[in-house]
Design a protein that fits this description.
Order of helices and strands: HHHHHHHHHHH
Number of domains: 2
Bound molecules: adenosine-5'-triphosphate, magnesium ion
CATH class of the largest domain: Mainly Alpha
Structural class: mainly alpha
Number of helices: 11
Distance between the termini: 26 Å
CATH architecture of the largest domain: Orthogonal Bundle
CATH superfamily of the largest domain: Death Domain, Fas
Number of strands: 0
Length: 177
């Protein structure tokens, strides 16, 4: 991760280690794809809350910018607003012109979706191109005006996964959000 982010973590390490309970924070980071289950296990094996927090911070320090952003968001969403605020100044800036990763997602898209808490694709993922395109067209039709696109359907039919997929796109995000 960037030196600025790293320094910010190191500077506030003491407060973070003293106050955070790791389990919900790790759930959040695992769903963002920045922490592995075996890393989670390693943290959980520590005997005290403080040692678990220390192990999590140590693990994050060895990771990338996305992990920092995911940790920051986890703090924000899990009731540690004050601690998240301490880390705000260290949030790395990720340029929107960066290249694409292995699934064709730019780092800008990854960062924005990560910051917004948009879930990742299911591990086994069925593309629904026609529907995704239809939603993206509706978003483009808003042409800069505030508005909504409504996705409706039976419980569990895949609405949220579809909505997440529609915004997993550089031009949609840059132009509409
Ligand atoms: N395109 C897809 N490919 C693979 N699995 C999918 C896909 N869409 C949905 N699923 C599976 O179905 C589950 C439910 O999908 P999702 O949460 O999007 O439904 P929903 O319509 O938003 O449900 P709810 O009405 O409860 O909000 C997902 O967790 C995922 O496991
Ligand atoms: Mg849903």
């Amino acid at each position: 991760m960037d030196a600025k982010a790293r320094n910010c973590l190191l500077q506030h390490r003491e407060a973070l280690e003293r106050d955070i309970k790791t389990s919900y924070i790790m759930d959040h980071m695992i769903s963002n794809g920045v922490l592995t289950v075996s890393e989670e296990e390693k943290v959980k094996n520590e005997p005290t809350q403080r040692q678990r927090a220390a192990m999590l911070i140590k693990t994050i320090l060895e990771k990338d910018n996305y992990s920092y952003i995911s940790f920051y968001n986890a703090l924000l969403h899990e009731g540690y607003k004050d601690l998240a605020y301490l880390l705000h100044g260290g949030i790395p800036v990720i340029s929107s012109s960066n290249g694409k990763d292995s699934v064709g997602i730019t780092s800008y898209v990854r960062t924005v979706l990560c910051e917004g808490g948009v879930p990742q694709r299911p591990v086994v993922f069925v593309t629904r191109k026609k529907l995704v395109n239809a939603i993206q067209q509706k978003l483009f039709k808003l042409s800069g005006e505030p508005g909504w696109v409504t996705i409706y359907g039976m419980a569990g039919c895949g609405k949220s996964v579809l909505a997440a997929e529609a915004v997993r796109d550089h031009s949609v995000l840059e132009g509409k959000f």
